[in-house]
Backbone:
């Protein structure tokens, strides 16, 4: 629940089917504190319930995407409070990850600790050139990023980054699959808008089912994954939206020498 006296940490609005979510604590380099955890979770729960939303762009104000957890708020707190605070952060990341809409993170500057978790909770990320990533949790005397990170880049690479706390440049993050694309910083938001427009052109049910099938399939073997895909196909066929996709493909084929190929 968001406290009535909580300062604004997350701003969001929906325009033409795109939900724009922005970390809004630039004076603290968007360090994650309890109010931000609550507001991120609330924002994504509301977005998930809004059938008009087609895609989510997640970005941040100021020179850094996110400087990690706000360790200052732990001063004077006991272990119980810290435990509850971590549970709140897990709930915020889960709300991002479980959103039915595609979530695209647009990251820049420093992306540290909790900022990396937010980035990895999105479906994929676009980074501005010059962005750096760090996973310093063990060096802060805590534990974090041990699960999503290894699933994104592999166990051995995850251990190296966690154990050493070395900065990971955007070019290497691209090679490892932590981000999907690098763009000049001045084109970050423009690129996000282009991606949102492209996703928004697809039938929403097909996108939602594709996201669910990929996520569920990643948790099982290929045979069960194919069954998950077949169930998604059956659900898609029960809706007339797939006919719109066929019509759009036909129109495109008539108007270009290089129509998209389908499986």
Residues:
């Amino acid at each position: 629940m968001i406290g009535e006296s909580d300062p604004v940490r997350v701003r969001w609005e929906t325009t033409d089917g795109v939900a724009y979510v922005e970390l809004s604590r630039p004076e603290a380099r968007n360090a994650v504190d309890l109010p931000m955890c609550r507001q991120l979770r609330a924002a994504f729960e509301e977005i998930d319930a809004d059938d008009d939303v087609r895609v989510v762009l997640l970005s941040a104000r100021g020179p850094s995407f996110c400087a990690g957890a706000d360790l200052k708020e732990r001063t004077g707190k006991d272990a119980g409070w810290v435990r509850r605070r971590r549970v709140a952060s897990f709930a915020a990341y889960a709300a991002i990850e479980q959103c039915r809409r595609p979530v695209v993170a647009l990251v820049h500057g420093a992306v540290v600790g909790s900022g990396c978790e937010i980035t990895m909770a999105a479906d994929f990320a676009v980074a501005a050139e010059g962005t750096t990533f760090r996973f310093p949790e063990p060096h802060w005397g805590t534990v974090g990023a041990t699960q999503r990170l290894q699933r994104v880049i592999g166990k051995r690479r995850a251990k190296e980054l966690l154990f050493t706390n070395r900065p990971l440049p955007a070019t290497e993050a691209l090679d490892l699959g932590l981000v999907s694309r690098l763009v000049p910083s001045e084109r970050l938001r423009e690129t996000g808008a282009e991606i949102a427009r492209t996703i928004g052109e697809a039938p929403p049910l097909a996108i939602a089912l594709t996201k669910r099938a990929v996520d569920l399939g990643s948790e099982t073997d290929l045979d069960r994954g194919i069954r998950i895909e077949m169930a998604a196909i059956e659900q898609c066929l029960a809706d007339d939206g797939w006919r719109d996709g066929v019509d759009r493909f036909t129109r495109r084929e008539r108007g270009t020498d290089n129509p998209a190929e389908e499986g």
Summary: The radius of gyration is 19 Å. The chain has ten helices and nine strands. Strands lie at 10-15, 18-23, 55-60, 103-107, 110-112, 124-128, 132-134, 168-169, 181-183. Residues 79-97 form the longest helix (19 residues).
